[in-house]
Design a protein that fits this description.
The protein has ten helices and ten strands. The chain is of the alpha/beta class. Strands 6-7-8-3-9-10 form a six-stranded mixed β-sheet, with helices on both faces. The longest helix has 18 residues.
Amino acid sequence: MALLEIDNLSAFYGRAQSLHNVSFNVGKGEIVAVIGTNGAGKSTLMDSIMGMVKNTGAIRLEGQDLIGFDSSEIVKRGVGYAPERAHLFPFMTVEDNLLVGGYTARDDIGRNLAHVHELFPVLKQRATQETATQSGGERQMVSVGRALMTSPRLLLVDEPTIGLSPKVCSEIAATLKRLNEEDGLTILITEQNINFAMSLATRVHVLETGHLRISGTPQELAADDALNKAYFGG
């Protein structure tokens, strides 16, 4: 059963159209990736799901349409969001940034904070450090952790590897895989790092200039000559 349904979704910034009739589903318990180059519309897709962009079409979470609701209501309905480049409160501490994420799930704050510390032990060690002074990798961990503080059923992660070292990318990948396999969390990621996305996702969608061009399993897309040439230099 689909947890998230995107149906003929178009997105607009004023008169400029950024997404064009995009349709795909994310099943419960899946990791699905949307890949594409810079400017393909990946962040617009995520912002659309979170109610931050003018849209036509439909976005449904377990059959209930999300279009028309603001971001706080969408979070309450079970969508956690770790946006591109973290967008943290830079002069607040790590712990305060995490606690901000718990405002819609106050009854779960203690349990969720303990789980975030288990996933990212460094964040417990850096609890009183301002996020402005952290490394890029640690800020990304705070971003994902803050999204988990909302007790999500669906986790959106927008370009989690941007600007990070291969070692940190591997750590982020391992954490997302653990959340999926051990907690059953459904995850939608967007990425320019094709190898990262293909290593995690069960299904991959290729977005180009706001159009969904091709979809398939990682194995199917890796065997596609045109995609191989465009993204892997084959």
